[in-house]
Amino acid sequence: MRLLDAVAWAQGPSGGSGSGGTWLSLLPFVLIFVIFYFLLILPQQKRQKKLKVMLEALKKGDKVVTSSGLWGTVTNLGKETVTLQIADNAKVKIQRDHIARLRADEEE
Predict the structure, then answer these.
(1) pLDDT tens for residues 41-53?
(2) Is 44 within 8 Å of 36 (Cβ atoms)?
């Protein structure tokens, strides 16, 4: 048996690049994508939906924490802005998207 025949025989009848081999080589990538979807993408989408619902339900008097860490009470609501009272005589106007969460009454 010549060397070329031995190599051809070792690769099998399809030459080693059959459709079964292609799908088998893509399987790890598909599994990695599925894992990323359930561990990273899906939870992030749920958080974004929850935040959107919270921002739409804001009302005057709500105590909030901004993404920059300011604690305040909502005094006025605009379409894209919120006015927060952060001290007795200090009010700031921020973009509505920068409100991170509602604050519980017992938090201080």
Answers:
(1) 999 999 999 999 9
(2) no
Within 10 angstroms of residue 64's Cβ, the number of other Cβ atoms is 21
Query: Do strands 90-95 and 81-87 pair parallel, antiparallel, or not at all (unpaired)?
Result: antiparallel
Which alpha helices (DSSP H) does 12-75 contain, by range? 19-36, 42-56
Q: For the chain (length 108 residues), average pLDDT per consecutive 10?
A: 55 56 87 94 95 94 94 94 95 95 80
Domain boundaries, the chain: 14-57, 58-108
Q: 58-108, what's its fold?
A: SH3 type barrels. (2.30.30)
Identify the pLDDT of residue 102.
93
Number of alpha helices (DSSP H) and beta strands (DSSP E) in the chain: 3, 5
Distance CA 59, CA 35 (A): 39
Would you say 86 and 70 are in contact if contact means Cβ atoms under 8 Å apart? yes
